[in-house]
Amino acid sequence: MLRRELLKYLECFLTAVISGCQMSAPPNRTEAIWENFITCLKDQELIFSSALEAPYCYLLAKTAVSRPLFLVLDDNFYYQSMRYEVFQLARKYSLGFCQLFLDCPLETCLQRNGQRLRALPPETIYAMGEKIEKPNPQKNAWEHNSLTIQSPACSLESSLEVTDLLLLTALENPVNNIEDNMEQKEMDRIICSTNVLHKADQTLRRIVSQTMKEAKDEQVLPNNLKLLAEELNKLKAEFLEDLRQGNKYLCFQPTTDLSDVTSFFCNEKHNIVQKYFSKQH
């Protein structure tokens, strides 16, 4: 939600640059995020505040319209569908689009994370490593302007490659607003499947959590509780993988109903739970 809100703010800025008009604050904004966005643009000397009587209007600085403008979105973008939303924005306004992927070993990521002032739990880094989808220009034509750099082994040659090959190529070859229908349908399917997986994961986590609470209320022995948790989490992981691969249960459709998914999972969960509850008696 935060990522999409920032894309909405970015679109406000783009429309102002393209039209040469002032930029106004969008309705239904999150004030803190909007202020951070405005501060970033001001720090880059791209905008400045308008007259006092219009506190939420901003004028474009000369630097925003007098020379090539590169907008860098620094995020993990671990799903292709996340990056595709940015591509869609570039296509909508016929802008250049490119991707820079820092290919970093998991061990290095864990080491760097440990050096942060507010380090994330290591489990988060492991989960990100499993989820991340590298650019695949062979499969996705819209990812053809992608460059992979090995991190931490970045070099001066890599920096020049980023400038010459990626940025200038993207600048000189803006995205065509006309795209093949088959590619559009495929990306719609990917976005749909990603959303369904996310919702399914959240739902199954809640079911597992509630089941473990019920088991504790039933005073299931600690050793059996551990075994029950392991089996339920294994079932959840297998279930999501089957769902991701489309092997069983259902195929992704724009109107997918997660109640069927939940029902299938609860049936298999029931068999496991009964086994441990019966041990207790």
From TrEMBL:
Keywords carried by this UniProt record: ATP-binding, Nucleotide-binding
List, alphabetically, the InterPro entries matched.
KTI12/PSTK, L-seryl-tRNA_Sec_kinase_euk, P-loop_NTPase, Ser-tRNA(Sec)_kinase
Give one GO term, molecular function aspect: tRNA binding
PANTHER family assigned to the protein according to its UniProt record, in alphabetical order:
L-SERYL-TRNA(SEC) KINASE
What NCBIfam families does this protein's entry cite?
A: selen_PSTK_euk
User: What protein name is recorded for this chain?
Assistant: L-seryl-tRNA(Sec) kinase
The protein's organism comes out as Marmota monax
